[in-house]
TrEMBL record:
Compositional bias of kind Basic residues: 1-14
Keyword Ribonucleoprotein tagged: no
Similarity comment text for this entry: Belongs to the UTP25 family.
UniProt name for this protein: U3 small nucleolar RNA-associated protein 25
Domain UTP25 C-terminal: 583-760
Compositional bias per record (Polar residues), positions renumbered to this chain: 128-140
Single GO BP term: rRNA processing
Compositionally biased intervals (Acidic residues): 115-126, 146-167
Bias-annotated ranges (Low complexity): 39-48
Length: 761
């Protein structure tokens, strides 16, 4: 691979006649790329607010502009380099609207007074450019290890098979033709945000302007901002996918028994990912709830999207390296004057996938390897170590490219483990493998190999759990020699099985996302002259695509999607209606729903506790029978109820996610024997243990469960009760949970009705 050269901004003065044509062609190509970069992408051209930004920008007059990060960088480097100082001066003149003639006159004025450099023409230009090149190389410390590893990726034949639209940029097509031919990858990363657009994005005001029925999903629809891309012809929805990846994906699909790929769920969801919009899909039936086909289809789609993003990023870097290597004798100021050589972020990792458990990560990475073309995985390094640390006891065959492996693993867990335990089947499938929730691994793709456990700074993709990543962030805050700058250039963030992560600690996810796309504390050997401008301007978070996937939505997921996902392309989310799970209650239980009033979501918890203490607890305080179980969704509510019962000197026992095993057995015995009248039981304790609580006579659901499948499980524990009654508390801010349990239609009536008590039998 050739040396990397610094990028110099500004116009050039006229060269000798024999080099004028070359300069003209390059300026022509630069104009084409600028037209493409400033043209609106198909996914956003219909957004009226964006049109307003552009029209306002075009009509505004030139005013004083604060120096950007890129300007400050040039100024700093220029303090020790006359060539770079000239670059900064010319960039300022360019921003002031000075013409080439004016700049040439200024340059001639600076060099006046019988200067030999002015009279020597292009020969001295070449020498000056060579001096600039040397000084830039000395000022930028490129890691020799990273340099040698990158050499492994250089392959002219492979580079030429990729971006057809990149070649079109060099063939003199018009800006419109190039825009139609370019992939969504180049359109997304090549767009330049105006100051007005950035200001609008920071205000977080999103309006979902269109809706489209979700194909293959009853009672669901996609809604989105900007232009509706899902209404267009879907035949070209994989046009942005590299041909090599597409052929291999199609082959894997056929080998797994697929018939019509064009109408498959994989292709449909890939088209949404390929729009580079932020996505919230929280009605995905997970693999552990007999939703293997749907879950696998969505997983295949986002894996292919991630691979496509990584491979296209690598192709651009390899091509630019090759061009710079071939033009070592050319004038580097002219070569690096356009935007086409801006292909770097602050660090190398571009994709981050957050997963809850090591067994889920094992499933995703194995599929990632299967979906990687054979020529790119001649060698998979540390696969044995990965199987030992992430997999179950049985190691599957790496040559299986279909979905049979996943299906067999699920069936084996269901058939073998259920016979040994009374736990529900979904519990066995989810926790039957490696349930470690503290892991982090880097993956690097080279020309012919996949390197797992690669150094984070040399990785293309990072697979991690929120706990594993938050631990690294905490270490970096304490130890100065450590940092998490590898999170500074993440361009695609995927959070899969967000519903399971919500049962762990969702605040970790918020902390991780807030840490993304920040300015790095160190340089890490990157060529600063090739960093994209929107990185240097601090706008990279507006280019990051975030994909959130789960089986349900709650206020925490919504808050992250609304507050921390600010992709300029816009947002797409799935809205679903529910039938409810009341038919799954097998017993004839009187289910009484009592609504309490809460003025805002901030004081909803206080209102709930106040209603419980005044309306519910007096009815059970003097109960002689006992057997009262209070089900609580969150740990914070659990603490408040525990403290309240202590103040009331109530007879109760505890069963939460932090209770020791010995205390759990003792509490269950006390409750069953009647020694303790009240038991507090949390949703997370049920999620991680699925206890069968015996001796329940009266069930009080203090807060509805997030996971709808837990409701019939908890209510069915009343089997053998003399009372067969269940009381559930809710407010209008429990709309999400309520509709998943009683159904969307019923929940709307219950929230808006004048009555406060509702009965289901």
């Amino acid at each position: 691979m050739g040396k990397r050269y610094g990028r110099k901004r500004g116009h050039m003065r006229p060269k000798t006649p024999e080099k004028t044509n070359t300069s003209k062609d390059m300026r022509k190509n630069q104009r084409i790329e600028n037209n493409v970069a400033h043209s609106s992408s198909p996914s956003s051209s219909g957004n009226s607010s964006e049109d307003h930004w552009k029209s306002t920008t075009s009509e505004s007059v030139l005013v004083y502009k604060e120096p950007s990060v890129y300007d400050n960088l040039l100024m700093t480097l220029g303090s020790g380099s006359e060539s770079l100082a000239n670059v900064y001066k010319r960039r300022k003149k360019e921003e002031e609207g000075r013409s080439d003639t004016e700049e040439d006159e200024d340059y001639a004025f600076e060099m006046s007074g019988g200067s030999e450099e002015e009279n020597n023409g292009s020969d001295d230009d070449s020498g000056q450019s060579h001096a600039m090149q040397t000084e830039i190389q000395e000022s930028i410390n490129i890691d020799p290890i990273e340099q040698s590893e990158e050499d492994e990726t250089v392959d002219e034949d492979e580079a030429s098979d990729s971006d057809e639209e990149h070649e079109l940029e060099l063939n003199g097509q018009t800006g419109t033709d190039v825009t139609k031919s370019m992939s969504s990858f180049n359109l997304h990363l090549g767009n330049k945000l105006s100051n007005l657009e950035v200001v609008a994005l920071t205000k977080n005001k999103w309006k979902f302007e269109w809706e489209v029925p979700a194909v293959g999903m009853l009672m669901s629809k996609w809604v989105g901002t900007g232009k509706c891309f899902l209404k267009e012809d879907n035949d070209n929805c994989v046009s942005g996918l590299k041909q090599k990846l597409y052929k291999h994906w199609l082959n894997v699909y056929k080998m797994s028994g697929g018939i019509n790929f064009n109408s498959s769920k994989q292709k449909l969801f890939f088209s949404i990912c390929n729009s580079y919009r932020d996505i919230l899909h929280c009605n995905k039936k997970p693999f552990y709830l007999k939703g293997l086909e749907e879950d696998s289809s969505i997983m295949d789609a986002y894996i292919m999207h991630a691979l496509n993003h990584i491979f296209r990023t690598r192709d651009i870097v390899v091509k630019n390296d090759a061009k710079l290597s071939k033009n070592q004798d050319a004038v580097k100021e002219e070569i690096l004057s356009g935007d086409r050589f801006l292909d770097h972020g602050f660090t190398r990792p571009k994709v981050l996938i957050l997963l809850p458990l090591a067994s889920v990560a094992y499933r995703v990475v194995r599929r990632l390897i299967q979906l990687t073309p054979s020529s790119n995985k001649v060698n998979v390094e540390y696969s044995d170590r990965f199987s030992d640390e992430f997999g179950a006891e049985a190691v599957q065959d790496d040559n299986d490219d279909g979905e049979n492996e996943i299906a067999n693993n699920v069936r084996d867990n269901e058939n073998s483990n259920i016979q040994k335990s009374s736990k529900p089947s979904d519990f066995q499938v989810l926790f039957g493998g490696n349930n470690n929730d503290h892991f982090m691994m880097g993956i690097k793709f080279t020309r012919k190999s996949i390197k797992m456990y690669s150094d984070f700074y040399s990785s293309d993709m990072i697979i991690a759990s929120p706990l594993g990543l938050i631990t690294k962030i905490g270490e970096a805050e304490v130890e100065k020699e450590k940092d998490v700058d590898y999170l500074s250039s993440i361009e695609v963030l995927i959070i899969d099985h967000a519903d399971v992560i919500a049962m762990q600690n969702w605040s970790h996810v918020n902390s991780v996302v807030e840490q993304l796309n920040c300015f790095p504390s160190k340089q890490h050997g990157i060529d600063v002259m090739r960093i994209r401008h929107w990185y240097l301007d601090g706008h990279s978070r507006f280019y990051r695509q975030t994909i959130v996937l789960g089986s349900f939505v709650n206020p925490d997921l919504n808050a992250l999607f609304n507050r921390l996902c600010v992709n300029y392309e816009g947002k797409v989310k799935l809205i679903s209606e529910y039938k409810g799970v009341l038919p799954k209650v097998l017993l004839q239980v009187r289910q009484i729903y009592e609504r309490f009033d809460a003025s805002s979501i901030i004081n909803a918890d206080d209102s709930r506790l106040d209603y419980f203490s005044k309306k519910v607890f007096p009815k059970i305080k003097d109960s002689v029978q006992g057997g009262i179980m209070i089900f609580i969704s969150s740990y914070f509510e659990f603490v408040r109820i525990r403290n309240f019962l202590k103040l009331q000197n109530a007879s109760f026992c505890l069963l939460d996610e932090y209770t020791k095993q010995s205390d759990i057995s003792r509490a269950r015995g006390w409750f069953f024997q009647g020694t303790r009248k009240i038991m507090l039981y949390t949703e997370r304790a049920h999620f991680y243990h699925r206890y069968k609580i015996r001796g329940i006579q009266n069930l009080i659901i203090y807060s509805l469960p997030e996971r709808k499948e837990f409701y019939p499980e908890i209510v069915n524990m009343l089997e053998g009760s003399d009372n067969m009654a269940c009381t559930a508390l809710f407010s209008r801010f429990d709309q999400y949970r309520l509709e998943r349990i009683v159904g969307t239609a019923s929940s709307k009536k219950m929230v808006s009705s004048e009555k406060n008590v509702f009965l289901f039998c």
